[in-house]
Amino acid sequence: MSSAKSSKKSRNRKDTSPPENKCITFAAGGKTFSLELSRVREIVGYIDITPVRNAPANVLGVIRAFGQFVSVVDLAGRFGGPVAPMTDDTCILIVQTLRGGKPAMAGMVVDRVISVDPMNDEIRKRLLDVDSTLADEDLQIALPRAA
d(Cα 138, Cα 55) in Å, to the nearest integer? Predict the structure, then answer.
């Protein structure tokens, strides 16, 4: 009985390790991905996305976050997978990425967040490379047009 108590106690203990030592695992289009937690600025429930004309097929539009317009990408579509139906678990990960070599933010629609775990070597090998996954043309739609 004491082992069950200590097991329960350790599961409820708050993890205080810094975000760069953790990863977030999520599902999109029937696939599982992991990303460094330090790249995630916010996780928001699925909200209305403003469509943008002539955007690439996998770009759903833009949302307003942190005082700016942020492009939202259908991650499943980006990898050629089917778009899952919206559920209570569907959310948008707002992530830090690069646009033209400069810091930028983008939103990725995911089917669900699975877990946040400590980083290890096995996970490091399969981390999603956000900078190459979200191409510059996916992010450019949120930039104001020059007059």
Answer: 8
